[in-house]
Amino acid sequence: MAHTMGDKKLLARVRRMKGQVQAVEKALESGAECGDILQQIAAIRGAANGLMNQVLESHIREHLGAEHVSADTRQADLEQVVGVLRSYLK
């Protein structure tokens, strides 16, 4: 089972982001000012970054820092994290 499963803080972050995206959709449909829409987009980006940071930190602690994890598993997890970070930071 994933260590993030059922994490209420993560779910709360995602639900806030969902609300922010819906607000952007409504703003675009209603012809809101560009500045207001840009501000909402910036808030979504900040929320996504916060979510990424929280999940990444948890993953590193639970998978890469755990003593019970084999060297092969740790290496595979490390490669996965590096791949995700490369994609995320483009």
Automatic annotation (TrEMBL):
Gene Ontology molecular function: any one: DNA binding
CDD domains: RcnR-FrmR-like_DUF156
Top-level division of the source organism's lineage: Bacteria
Sections of the chain in a coiled coil: none
GO biological process: negative regulation of DNA-templated transcription
Family from the record: Belongs to the FrmR/RcnR family.
Protein name per the record: Metal/formaldehyde-sensitive transcriptional repressor
Organism of derivation: Oxalicibacterium faecigallinarum
Source species taxonomy: Bacteria, Pseudomonadati, Pseudomonadota, Betaproteobacteria, Burkholderiales
